[in-house]
Amino acid sequence: MSLKKAHVWAGWTGAIFTAGFLIACIPPLAWTIPPKLSPTSSPAEVHRFYVDHLTQIRAGAWLGMVASAFYYPWGAAIAAMTRRIENGRPPILTYTQLGAVGVAVFNSVLYFFWMAYCAFRAETMDPEMLRSLNDFQYILLEFEVFPLSLWAIAIGLLILLDKSPKPVFPRWTAWVNFWFAGLVMTGQFMIFFKTGPVAWNGVLALYWPASVFFTWICIMSYMVIKGVNSEDGVTQDADQQNYSIGPADPA
Amino acid sequence: MSQTTETSASDGPEVSGSVAAAARGPIAAEPTDGEGSGRWSVGHIPGEAGIWIFILGDMTLYAALFGSFIYDRSAHVEQFNTSSATLHTAFGMVNTLLLLVSSISVVYGIRSVREGLNPKRAPLFFKLAFLCALGFVVNKFFEYSDLLHNQLDPTENTFYTYYYILTGIHLTHLLAGMAVLVFLWKVAAKPKIAAPDIRAMESGASFWHVVDLLWIVLFPLLYLVS
Amino acid sequence: MFATAKTAATPVFAILVIATLISYSVGAEHGVDNNRVATVLVLTIAFAKAYMVGLYFQELRHAPLWLRTLFRGWCLVGWTAVVGIYLLG
């Protein structure tokens, strides 16, 4: 396997993460998308759901944990590729992305930890407590919004600032990042509602942000693959061919 | 998607051309191109192509929101009608007019710079648009505080949830748009305006018009449907 | 000033203002007796207005066909969905 091939695979991880995460969550596995429960479900209903689906939920949590691993090569790949745009200057926006990757991966991992925890001893757990554990599962899934937005803004900003004749990513992808950053935001209001479109089982808290999020992941995943493939000169001087050393723009 | 990149790549001469060339853009670009590309990609994209991904993506969210609002309405017709009646339609209408005036001034502002009609007056047009936007915010502030004074907050019922979410997201767009208007006015005040500036101004103006466009649909949907 | 205003956007602006006032009187003062007819009318006017903002203010009428088609698609889908769900609901 050449280094280039390994990098192409790093690009594919975004798509793998998307597929794994979604399969883990939809029926017949964990059944959190579309949710079988709602914020208004009684403790008994929640308890019953867990007891009836124990194995599926555990299998979903397991698969989701596997999928979450593929999240960080994806994030790292984008950061590494946009790092070239900051060539010669302190890589501030690149490091911002790396910080964001850490937080985002931790969020995804914790979500599946929590799912596994809910299902571990559900039969004998107090239904009231199980319900609140289940609520927290959805808070983990939907409430982390702005940290993701800022990450996408950092990526988009770098793409816009790329003045190279052979840019790392096409310019329009910057707008995909801004689109994601702005529009994923409907989800975070889920903590205020128990019914309606912004409650955790609603369109604005779950389906819309999830679609925007995975569309973003898949587009950027494709862009990493394309970017790695178009980088024909895998020589040590590759950076210098497109980006001079030292602050590039005198302005 | 590839269509987008191709187009932005193929209209190179306009980016490198003079202001005058960019000024002729919409008219000149229309019928001339005879080779290959066909009707599909001939024409002048207002601003850069990428901004349209953002704008149309943004409008998709709103289309989904409109649909979901009207769908949930059918389940609670009574509640939606009585709640909608508590809104002050006059606020909504004045805001529609304010945004229309701001939009037309942005159109005039862009025209006076790009067509070279009256570049000195251009910043004035953007300032006027900004003032209208400010009026919208003040108006909205009174409207929200009036509702909240009557204990009508987002958790009251599904209608108010929608009302606050829809107008709230719109308001964030409007505030972002006000920053864009300041940018337009700064660029318009530059002593020498180059072709990339024109392009950036068109991008900004296109975004500002979205703020107007969405409110035009939001206003009747929230205030007038019964 | 006059040269700046010499564009199709100016009459469009006038039409939009008039349409806003008409919608307002139809919706708020119940100029039309039947609520359903009034609502469909108001929503149709709204999407037509949005369409004109796109074409004349955003200058999409000079834009490439792919972009115009996407925008028209949005207006058409939006209008069909909103009016359709309203009538069926």
- Low-pLDDT runs of 5+ residues of chain C are none
**Count of extended strands of chain A:** 0
Strand content of chain C: under 5%
Largest interface: B-C, 59 and 52 residues
Helical percentage of chain A = 55-70%
| Radius of gyration of chain C from CA coordinates | 15 Å
Q: What gross morphology of chain C would you assign?
A: flat
Describe the largest sheet of chain C. none
Measured between the Cα atoms of the first and last residue of chain C, the distance is 49 Å
- Kindly provide the radius of gyration of chain A, computed on alpha-carbon positions and rounded to a whole number of angstroms: 20 Å
Q: Tell the overall outline of chain A.
A: elongated
Mean pLDDT of chain C: 88
Number of structurally distinct domains of chain C: 1
Element string of chain A (H = helix, E = strand): HHHHHHHHHH
Number of domains of chain A: 1
Describe this structure in words.
With 251 residues, chain A is mainly alpha-helical. Chain A has helices at 3-25, 43-52, 54-69, 71-83, 92-120, 127-142, 146-161, 172-183, 203-230, 238-242. In chain A, helix 1 (3-25) packs antiparallel against helix 9 (203-230), helix 3 packs antiparallel against helix 5 and helix 7 runs antiparallel to helix 8 (172-183). Chain A is elongated, with a radius of gyration of 20 Å. Chain A starts with a helix and ends in a 9-residue tail after the last helix. The mean pLDDT of chain A is 90. Chain B folds into two domains: 2-41, no CATH class; 49-224, Four Helix Bundle (Hemerythrin (Met), subunit A) (Up-down Bundle). Chain B has ten helices and no strands. Chain B has helices at residues 2-10, 12-16, 19-28, 38-41, 49-75, 77-85, 89-114, 122-149, 158-188, 195-224. In chain C, helix 2 (9-28) packs antiparallel against helix 3 and helix 3 (35-57) runs antiparallel to helix 4 (65-88). Chain C has helices at residues 2-5, 9-28, 35-57, 65-88. Chains in contact: A-B, B-C. At the B-C interface, helix 4, helix 5, helix 7 and helix 10 of B face helix 1, helix 2, helix 3 and helix 4 of C.
